[in-house]
Amino acid sequence: MAQAGTGGRNRPLSPHLQIWRWGPGMTVSILHRISGNGLAVAGLGLLLWWLGALAGGAESYATFTRLVDSWWGMVILVGVSWSFFNHLASGVRHFVLDIGSGYELVANARWAIITPLVGILFTAAFWAAILIR
Amino acid sequence: MGNGTSIGRVRGLGSAHSGAHHWLMQRLTAIGSLVLVPWLLFSLITLPNLHYETVHEWLARPVPATAMGLLVVTSFWHGRLGMQVMIEDYVHEHANKFAVMTLLNLAAFAGAAFGLFCVVRIALGGIA
User: What would the pLDDT profile of A63-105 be if each residue is shown by its tens digit?
Assistant: First the structure.
């Protein structure tokens, strides 16, 4: 850690966020964190609410479906589903990187661009499957 | 990973003080969710409808109830590990970090316990 007062003011500092040129890898990384923590709060909350409503009986389940059918309920459902599919796509990317593959600059940038698109595509396919079933 | 010191190698611990355990459990619980959440979504899509009786009758069956219980365990475990990383990155003050980590553990265990209880109630329980 920095030792204030011992070596003067001009010691090199660790580069901070704004000096880096923004790249696709950074976008995937922060989207992974946002969607993951969003899932942990909203997704698991929704899961517990749904299970609790189902365990509570027909009346509590009716309350759940009525509230989730509202416009803000749909915003939450679409948001949670996108979070899941985005986190799934970037999670699989983590597995690929874990085996030591995909670090070449061009391939890394290409898959970093494709990953969030896959998340959006899966989300769209999921809702299309619901709407046409 | 570097080779570290001899005693460090013997203990298998790095700078995280817990070796690769957190990292490994994050991956193992991820695989659990990777299988079980798509199973849940696919099941919900392919049910004839989402009325209370239909969903309740489906989830009360042995295999869906077991899978749902496993999904609760693996997703709360994975979420708890993931939120720990966020807390370690953004909460620097020791007392705050301790407080937030304690809250996270309480919430994760309470949430998983409630989810499991609901699955048991649906599978075995009282209200038809």
Answer: 999 999 999 999 999 999 999 999 999 999 999 999 999 999 9
Domain boundaries, chain A: 24-132
- On whether the CB atoms of residues B47 and B55 are closer than 8 A, the answer is yes
List all residues of chain B from 91 to 120 with a beta carbon under 8 Å from chain A.
111, 114-115, 117-119
The minimum CA-CA distance between B10 and chain A, rounded to whole Å, is 24
B8/chain A closest Cα distance in angstroms? 22
Share of chain A above pLDDT 70, in %: 92
ipTM of the complex: 0.88
Which stretch of A120-129, B5-14, B31-40 has the lowest confidence by average pLDDT? Answer: B5-14
Optimal mutation site among A17, A46, A47, interface B, most CBs of chain B within 10 A? A47
Give, in degrees to the nearest 5, the angle at Cα A113 between A111 and A115. Answer: 65
3-state SS string for chain A = CCCCCCCCCCCCCCCCHHHCCCCHHHHHHHHHHHHHHHHHHHHHHHHHHHHHHHHHCHHHHHHHHHHHCCHHHHHHHHHHHHHHHHHHHHHHHHHHHHCCCCCCHHHHHHHHHHHHHHHHHHHHHHHHHHHHC
Domains of chain B by start residue, with CATH: 20-124 (1.20.1300.10)
pLDDT at A44 over 90: yes
Domain A24-132: give its CATH architecture.
Up-down Bundle (1.20)
